[in-house]
Amino acid sequence: MSRIFPVLMLACIAMLAGPAWANTQGSASVKKDQHRDQLENPKDTLAWSVNYLNRIMYSGNEWYLTDRTYQKAIKGVLNYAENQPIDTSVVEMQKLLSDYGVVFIYDRRPQDIRHPENVPGYITSNQVDDQVKSLKKQWADSLKNSMIEVPESLLENIEKEVRLIPAMDPQRLLSDSLEQMPAAFRRCLKQHFASLGAADSISPAAFDSIRISVVESCRLRYNGSVLTSYRDSVIAQYRSGYIQQFIDSAAQAYREKVEQSNYDKLSYYNDGAVASANDSLRMALRYLTKYAAADSVKLSFTNLAGEKKSMWTANRPMPPIRFYLKNVQNDSLGVIVNNSGKGKVNIIIDDGVQIQRFTTTDRREIKIKREEPGDNLLAMNTITPKLSPWEMGGDGTLGFTQTTLKNWAKGGESSLAALGVAKYHVNYSKKKIKWENDLELRYGMNRTDTKGLQKNDDKIEFQSRLGYSAFNRWYYSGDFDFKTQMTRGYSDPDHQKPISAFMAPGYVTFSIGLDYKPNADFSLFISPLTSKTTYMNDTALIDPTNYGLKAGQKKLWEPGFIVKTTFKKDIIENIHYETAGQIFVNYRYPFTKFNFDWEQTLVLKVTRSINTRIMTHLIYDDNTKFPVYDNAGNQIGKKPKWQFQELFTVGFTYEF
Q1: I want to staple 582 with a disulfide (CB 3.0 to 4.6 A). Which of 82, 293, 353, 564 is the partner?
Q2: Which residues, 6+ apart, have CB-to-CB distance to 455 below 8 Å?
Q3: Which residue has the higher pLDDT, 417 or 72?
Q4: What is the C-alpha R_g of the chain?
């Protein structure tokens, strides 16, 4: 078998080259529908949105809805409530469009693509058949010219499989069994005896010897010919079967390879097409939802005198109308009809209207200029939506806590505390990319009679995380985190010895890992590749040994593993809860050093502009050292400790 190895290599190379050859044949047919699933550029937004939604929803099972909870809502904004009011559809559609858990509204399996032959690189069954036919001929020609060894077991004892002439007495053979012998054997005897010439010139003893020699020679020649013929037939049959088996196996392997290649190309194409189609679908749904929510309803009023008035109602301010009601005596009652929502009106009786019958009274006539609705109210201009992938927001809070004591027998002292908190975010989301940026600023001051004015909170933190969709709700993510403070901090009330300042310390962390985001409220980030750097901008006034650095050292780098998690939720109306925690393990000291940071915030909204904020902060950092004293008050060393902070404020807030 080793002699046919080069031929097998050639066959395998031809088999592997097959899909590439077929790809070039199919590339010409891609132009027709290659942009069928791509994002389109709408000209008439309303007509385009309706047509696009109909094409997705009624695609003949090519596309399927990932969450059937929203089926009625989608149909509702498409055709103004099939089984439910349009306002319900609008609310559910707004919930769907803001649900981060629904990555794709409609999805499609690769095998459901209607025209796979138009996908770049896809090989049709006809192309596969043609290529297999061509490859079979190449393989057959190559193997026919190769040396295929036949197993020795097939050629053993072949003399038992054919009819041979046994050795016997020549006289008996010639007299009794000659007619039963094969024709080839008899022809051989005839030719040899004919060549002997006249027998009278040869003695009987010599003739008998020649005859025995001729019979044995013909018998051996015939037997050899039969064995050779049978051997050749066995070899030919084995070679033919071997070649056919190899060709069938190679053709099957080629078909399976093309099938897998087709599926991979369809999957790759379908991933992009599904993402593009859902972007278009979300744009259409956003526009139709906005259109349905802002659409106007025309109401007509007719009194007993046949006078008609019309007005429009919508979920936005609309001009009121004045209308006169009539009874059977033709008395008039003036009313003002005012829009209070789509399909809803308020009817208000005019001030000073009196009804008197059968008496003559002075009448004051007030002329009211009445105008018919303009044409611009009867038609709605088509608005092309401009959907931005950017989303920005934030809030700011300024809170105060004040205590006044005078001649207070229970003890204590007056105090005044103020805390300012500002949080801002700028996020980007488009297709499979998410970029989240958060900035938090906090600064608090506390004043007492004995200690004077001192700082009780100071924080600057900026975090940026860039993610790309990986699988399910996981994202490949890179995370950047920067933390420091604004002003100096002091351990003594006289503010003579600072223990911290801006960028003293400052923390910069880079991480690469996976981010799990099942919805907009929860995130779990895991990074085995994390770089944490501690900076000390001022080592002259600030002791760097309090933060894990050596004396005079301005930078400390630590590699490690980090886990971050965030969660936020509106517990009930006007009560909001947020928490964020992280743990960092230093690879250099994996079992001895770690950093832990956990913050919690509970916001109770009193009014739109006033709230109560409760915050806690728990920290453990092996690099942050605190002095340790003996019973006599002498410092005997430094060690890390658990740090805890709790803040309670009532103040003013502003959101945007």
Answers
A1: 564
A2: 443, 444, 445, 446, 487, 489, 490
A3: 417
A4: 48
Q: What are the distances in angstroms from CA 632 to CA 626, 629, 635?
A: 17, 8, 9
Q: What is the largest CA-CA distance in the chain?
A: 179
CB 483 within 8 A of CB 507: yes
What Cα–Cα distance (Å) separates residue 386 from each residue in 286, 370, 390, 392? 10, 38, 12, 16
Can you read off the two tokens belonging to residue 357?
Answer: 């019958």
Alpha carbon distance 538, 545 (integer Å): 12
Q: What is the mean pLDDT of the chain?
A: 78
Tokens representing 135 are: 């490859």
Residue 141 backbone class (left: φ over 0; alpha: ψ -120 to 50; beta: rest): alpha
CB atoms within 10 A of CB 181: 17
The pair of structure tokens assigned to 230 is 């049978």
- How far is Cα 146 from Cα 138, in angstroms, rounded to an integer? 13
For 308, 311, 338, the CA distances from 372, given in Å and listed in that order, are 11, 9, 16
Question: pLDDT-derived band of residue 16, with 50, 70 and 90 as boundaries?
Answer: very low
Q: What is the pLDDT of residues 359-406, one digit of tens each?
A: 555 666 777 776 666 666 656 566 666 667 888 888 888 887 777 666
Inter-residue contact 338 to 346 (CB < 8 Å)? yes
d(CA 436, CA 475): 13
Take residue 587 and report the two structure tokens written for it.
Answer: 């690879």
Concatenate the DSSP letters of all residues of 266-331 into one string: HHHHHHHHHHHHHHHHHHHHHHHHHHHHH--EEEEEE-TT--EEEEEE-SS----EEEEEE-TT--
Distance, in Å, from the CA atom of 154 to the CA atom of 230, rounded to the nearest integer, reads 11
CB 310 within 8 A of CB 373: yes
What's the average model confidence in pLDDT over 448-475?
85
* pTM value > 0.70: no
* CB 53 within 8 Å of CB 76: no
Is omega for the bond preceding 505 within 30 degrees of 0, making it cis? yes
Tokens for 509, please give them.
């962390």
Let me know the angle formed at the C-alpha of 412 by 409 and 416, rounded to the nearest 5 degrees. Answer: 135
Bridge partners for 65 per DSSP: 106
Q: What is the pLDDT of residues 233-258, one digit of tens each?
A: 888 888 888 888 888 888 899 889 99
The continuous run of DSSP H or E covering 212 comes out as helix 204-294
Q: Kindly report which listed range (64-68, 104-108, 199-203, 317-321) carries the lowest average pLDDT score.
A: 199-203
Could you tell me which residues come within 8 angstroms of residue 110 by beta carbon, excluding any fewer than 6 positions away? 263, 266, 267, 269, 270
Rounded (10°) CA dihedral 531, 536, 537, 541: 170
CA-to-CA separations, 37 to 26, 56, 118, in angstroms, rounded: 19, 10, 11
Distance from C-alpha of 96 to C-alpha of 66, rounded to nearest angstrom? 12
DSSP one-letter code for 165: P
Record the tokens describing residue 176, joined without a space.
């009794």
Asked if 536 contacts 542 with a C-beta cutoff of 8 angstroms, the reply is yes
Dist. CA 558–CA 573, nearest whole Å = 43
Q: Which residues pair with 562 in a beta bridge?
A: 527, 584
Burial class, 602, CB count within 10 angstroms (exposed 0-12 / middle 13-18 / buried 19+): middle
Per-residue pLDDT of 283-336, as tens digits, reads: 888 877 777 776 677 788 888 877 888 877 877 777 888 878 888 777 778 888
